[in-house]
Amino acid sequence: MRFDEDYSFLKDSTGNFYRKIKYNRLSKDGSAYVSFGGSARMEYVDFNNEDWGRLGIGHNRFLLQRYDLHADIHLHERFRVFAQIRSAWETGRKNGPRPIDEDHLNIQNLFVDAAIIKRKDQQLILRAGRQELDYGSGRLISVREGPNLRLYFDGAKLMYTTRRWSIDGFAMMADTIRTGAFDNTSSKAINLWGLYSKIIIPAFPNIDLYYIGIQRDQSLFEEGLHRELRHTMGTRIWRYGGGFIYNLEAAWQFGSFGNGHINAWTASVEAGYLFENIPGKPAISLRNDYISGDRRKGDGNLQSFNPLYPKGGYFGFSPQIGPVNLIDLHPYATINIGKKIMAQADVVFNWRYSLQDGIYRPSGGFNLPGVTSAERHIGTAYLASIVYNVNKFISFNSGIQYFQAGAFIRDMTPNSKDGLFINTRLSVKF
User: Fold this and answer.
1) What is the secondary structure of 87-124 as a DSSP string?
2) Which of 1, 120, 227, 361 has its CA at 20 to 30 Å from residue 66's CA atom?
C-alpha cells in the first residue's frame, strides 16, 4: 500500500536527488511537503492447459505490464491528498485479456485525509475518495496484488486508532472495469460497507473482529443468477513472528439471494513454526480450510460462501480453484537463501465441500457446474517459487505450478489434462 509509506523522517536529512523526490518541502518548517513515487512491473506467463484443457487452447504465452505514478501531498499535520494513476496491459494471450489483466489508464487512488484527532496515542482520520482496501489476511477484502489489476473503491472511510486497538468503518462503491483509458464506470450506489477492528494485547494473540455487507444486482452461483444482499460476520486470531505462528479465522454469512435465504460459512486453521535461530530461518506451516457450498440445487436458498473481494493468490501464486465450496489441505515451507532470496514450496489438495455445488474461480466467480457428478476430489497443485530482492528498488520472482486433475475434473471435462503454469516477474519501484 504505497499510501502507507511515510517519508517525513527525511525532513532534516541532506538532500540528494532521490531524497528530494521522496521529500520536497512546501513550507519552511517542513510540515507541508510532497512525496513522489512510482513502479513498473513486467510478468511473462506460460500457461499450458488452462481450465484443464476445457478451452482447447494448449500453450498460452503472454506478457503482462503494469505502471503507476503517485503524489502524496501533506498539508501540515491535519490534511493530506494522495493521487495515483495506473496503466495495465496484456499482450499475446490467445483468448484475450481477462478482467484482471488490462486497463490502459485509470485513476487508482485519489483521496483526501482529514485528521479529526491527531495525537501520539490516538488518531481519528476521515478518508474520502477513491482508495484501495486491504484487511486481515486478504480472505474477504484484498487489494489483490497478484493479478495485474489491483482493486479500488470509491467512498469514505473513518479510521480510529490507539496503541492497542483500531477500528475502521467504511461505505464504498465498486467500479466496473473496462480496458480503455478513463472509461471505468461507477455503480453510483453503495454496494460495500462494513466495520473492521483489530485488538493488540501484549503477551496475547492479536484479534480481528469484522462485519462486511455487500449488495449486487446479479450474482452467479450454481443455484442461479439473482440479486444478492449478503452480510458477513467474522473473527481472526493470529500471531506472526519467531517460534509458533498461527492464523485462525471463521466467518458466517446471511442475507437474501433472489427470493431465498443465504446461510454460508467458512473456517480456516493455519499453524506453523519459524525456526529463527537456524540459518535461513526456515518455516513450516499447514493450512486447512472448510468453505461451504450449496446443499441442494434448485430449492431457492443458498449455502455457497461468497469470498467478496479475495486475495488472488491465497491458495498459491496462481490458483485455479476459488474459495467457494471447497475443502483444502495446504502444507508449505519457506527458507531464506542468503539475505536476498526466499524460496517456498507448497502442495495444495482440493476437494468439493458439497456435491450439489460446482467449483469457482479465484475471484469467486462461477466456473464449472458439479451437481451431476458424485466425485469430490478436484485435484492437487504442486508449487515452487523464489523471490529475489535485488535491493529496495528491484525485485524478481518466479514460480511454477503443476495442477494434477482429480476425479471431479476428469468426470466433468472430456479429455481433461493436467495444467502447468510458469511465471516470471520483474518489479521496479521508487
Assistant:
1) EEEEE--TT---TTT-EEEEEEEEEEEEEEEE-SSEEE
2) 361
**Rounded Cα gap, residues 254 and 140, in angstroms:** 15
**CA–CA separation, 47 vs 322, rounded Å?**
18
DSSP H/E element including 407: helix 407-412
**What is the enclosing helix (H) or strand (E) of 349?**
strand 341-351
Rounded Cα gap, residues 199 and 164, in angstroms = 6
DSSP E strand stretches across 177-205:
185-186, 192-199
**Which architecture characterizes domain 2-429 according to CATH?**
Beta Barrel (2.40)
What lies within 8 Å, CB to CB, of 13 at 6+ separation is 19, 23
Sign of CA dihedral 138, 287, 402, 353: negative
DSSP string of 262-299?
EEEEEEEEEEEEE-TTSTT--EEEEEEEEE---SSTTS
| DSSP secondary structure letter of residue 415 | T
pLDDT tens-digit profile of 201-259?
Answer: 877 889 999 999 999 999 999 999 999 999 999 999 999 887 999 999 999 999 999 99
Q: Decide: pTM greater than 0.90.
A: yes
Question: Is the distance from CB of 273 to CB of 243 less than 8 angstroms?
Answer: yes
